[in-house]
Design a protein that fits this description.
One of its GO terms (molecular function) is kinase activity. Its EC number is 4.2.1.136, 5.1.99.6. InterPro entries: CARKD (IPR000631), Nnr (IPR030677), Ribokinase-like (IPR029056), YjeF_N_dom (IPR004443), YjeF_N_dom_sf (IPR036652). Its cofactor is Mg(2+); K(+). Belongs to the NnrD/CARKD family. In the C-terminal section; belongs to the NnrD/CARKD family. It is elongated and about 80 Å long. It has two domains: 223 residues, YjeF N-terminal domain (Rossmann fold), CATH 3.40.50; 268 residues, UDP-N-acetylmuramoyl-L-alanine:D-glutamate ligase. Strand 2, helix 3 and strand 3 form a beta-alpha-beta unit. The model has no long low-confidence stretch (mean pLDDT 96). The strands form three sheets. A nine-stranded mixed beta sheet has the order 13-12-11-14-15-16-17-18-19, with helices on both faces. Strands 4-3-2-5-6-7-9 form a seven-stranded parallel beta sheet, with helices on both faces. It is α/β, with parallel strands linked by helices. It is built from 19 helices and 19 strands. Helix 13 crosses helix 15 and helix 16 crosses helix 18. The structure holds ligand NPW, adenosine-5'-diphosphate and potassium ion (K). The site of adenosine-5'-diphosphate has 17 residues, from helix 16. Ligand NPW binds next to helix 1, helix 2 and helix 3.
């Protein structure tokens, strides 16, 4: 698992070493890692170090110290180096080292921000070391002006020191302006704000430089499944598997108006390895569902046994909504997991069971919170994704999967997962229905087994009260990977994402085997 931590957690992990007088050693390790990352990045672009230029934007704290020490190393290796001190003063030892290595220093003031921005934009590399985990709020005054001007000028390779200045390291909230980084070099632990939107969008690729505090780190604030973890947890039918042990998913979706949503989510659930899909809906929709997925079973009356439910995609009309309400009530009393999307989100009881997974986008989450008297807009949710996903999980008692470029999953216990495996082509109609089908299929597969203490989630150290959130995160990741496979850099359709799902399972299966 990829782990991420709050600034407070990282600082607490640093404290014993600071108390032991090792602060300078930590900073040297960070600076060395940062300088090496810049060198590797330049070389990977086929550029020579000697004669290339770098400017470090250095704030007055330790983040600026890291940046100045790193720039001193780069100066010694032949780069033309400049420092812009954004707060007048800087870490004394780091500044001395930088000057001793031959670096040039400018001090940002009220009048020279635009002029400096033009100079810096001509450099090959810009290191953003203005603010790190000690930041309170965003950039202000001349530093804000400089960064805003520089961002407009589209500078060369921007490397953020520990975190892009202006991104809240804990939450991913962004205080504009921010210099969008191509690479962020994080020290000791990745900051949680680099794995949640909108912060993740400013961080570029994130690499971790260990600095010797790792043993002191507590349980992470946020986790992400990577390919080996997915391979380890994916349902793997045993030799004597049969369709009922693989998981049966009941689907309440679609209406005369939105037939496609039902067809797509059933197709996706089938593609994601469910043993059987039972479709509950009107005949006119069922015809389309079966035309696309003849393997599905249409249940016009009381359905046969199911292990999990998916409700909501394309749901509309009084009669259909009442059916969904009845199914939710029986799922609740039977203890069955349910994936609740779109139209069914407004049918939720005040408290949901912890094995229900709600899959709103930002607008739907704002509406959901509004029912609990939290008045927020879609934009509010988009700017504080982790905060509002957690709040909704706390209020509803269910797992909340908030869809987006980065999808955040909050469990009612407070745990947060985040996945970012897709691409912007996936923002297309029906894409969310595919996600619903995938998560529904996984919920059915894991309902019978897999989530107990002998299952693969336990083996990854995921606590019992985090496991349904983990299932949702696995679904989000498979959805993103299928989107990437379907897109290969070009447009895609939701059906194309669904068709690519078996390839993702195959890829991960080979990963497991090899
Ligand atoms: N601890 C360690 O040994 C290690 C730490 N490491 C590194 O240190 C970083 C944390 O360093 P840090 O704690 O010095 O804080 P940092 O992020 O540089 O900035 C805070 C400074 O800026 C100021 N300031 C605050 N907000 C502001 C704003 N909005 N706009 C303008 N100014 C603002 C604030 O001053 P104040 O306003 O409080 O007077 C303070 O002086 C961490 O991210 C990592 O890179 C690594 O080297 C490993 C070892
Ligand atoms: N920019 C993006 N990058 C990656 N994935 C995205 C992006 N925008 C949307 N998605 C994904 O596409 C899906 C869209 O779902 P949703 O908003 O419910 O659309 P619809 O209702 O049209 O199906 C979500 O799973 C979301 O995570
Ligand atoms: K920074």
């Amino acid at each position: 698992m990829i782990s991420a931590f709050t600034g407070t957690q990282i600082r607490a992990a640093e404290q014993p070493l600071l108390d032991a007088g090792e602060g300078a050693v930590l900073m040297q390790r960070a600076a060395y890692g940062l300088a090496n990352a810049v060198v590797r990045e330049l070389r990977s672009e086929g550029r020579r170090l000697y004669g290339s230029s770098v400017t470090v934007l250095a704030g007055k704290g330790n983040n600026g110290g890291d940046g100045l020490f790193a720039a001193a190393t780069l100066a010694r290796r032949g780069m033309r180096t400049t420092a812009v001190l954004t707060a007048g003063s800087a870490h004394p030892d780091a500044l001395a080292a930088f000057r001793a290595a031959g670096g040039r220093v400018h001090v940002l003031d009220e009048d020279n921000a635009e002029e400096l921005a033009v100079l810096i934009a001509g450099d090959d590399v810009v290191i953003d070391a203005i603010l790190g985990t000690g930041a309170r709020g965003g950039l202000r005054g001349s530093a804000a002006e400089l960064v805003a001007a520089l961002e407009e000028l589209r500078p060369g390779l921007v490397v953020a020191c520990d975190t892009p200045s202006g991104v809240d390291a804990d939450t991913g909230e962004v205080h504009w302006p921010v210099l969008t980084a191509r690479l962020t070099v994080a020290f000791g632990g990745i900051k949680a704000g680099l794995m949640a939107d909108p912060g993740e969008g400013c961080a570029g690729r994130v690499i971790l430089v260990p600095i010797g505090i790792e043993e002191n780190l507590p349980a992470p604030a946020l986790r992400r499944f990577s390919a080996p973890d997915l391979a380890a947890v994916l349902p793997d039918p045993g030799r004597r598997a049969q369709k009922y042990t693989r998981g049966v998913l009941g689907v309440v979706a679609g209406s005369g108006r939105y037939t496609g949503a039902a067809a797509i989510c059933v197709q996706a659930a089938s593609a994601a390895g469910t043993g059987m899909v039972r479709y509950l809906g009107p005949e006119v929709v069922a015809r389309q569902v079966l035309a696309r997925t003849p393997e599905a079973i249409w249940e016009p009356a009381e359905p046969g046994r199911v292990q999990a439910w998916l409700l909501g995609p394309g749901l509309d009309g009084v009669e259909r909504l009442q059916r969904a309400r009845d199914v939710l009530a029986s799922a609740s009393s039977a203890g069955q997991p349910a994936v609740v999307d779109a139209g069914a989100l407004e049918l939720l009881p005040e408290r949901c069971p912890p094995n229900w997974i709600l899959t709103p986008h930002a607008g739907e989450l704002a509406a959901l919170l509004g029912r609990g008297e939290v008045r927020v807009t879609r934009e509010d949710v988009e700017s504080r994704t982790v905060h509002f996903a957690r709040l909704a999980a706390e209020h509803t008692g269910a797992v909340v999967l908030l869809k987006g470029a980065t999808t955040v999953v909050a469990s009612p216990s407070g745990t947060v997962f985040s996945q970012s495996d897709g691409n912007p082509w996936m923002s297309t109609a029906g894409s969310g229905d595919v996600l619903g089908g995938i998560v529904g299929a996984l919920a059915a597969a894991y309902a019978e087994s897999g989530l107990d203490d002998h299952g693969p989630f336990a083996a990854l150290g995921i606590a019992p009260d985090e496991r349904w959130a983990a299932v949702a995160a696995v679904g989000a990741s498979i959805h993103g990977m299928a989107g990437s496979a379907a897109s290969r850099g070009g447009p895609l359709t939701a059906s194309g994402i669904a068709r690519a799902v078996p390839d993702v399972f195959r890829f991960l299966g080979e990963y497991r085997a090899g």
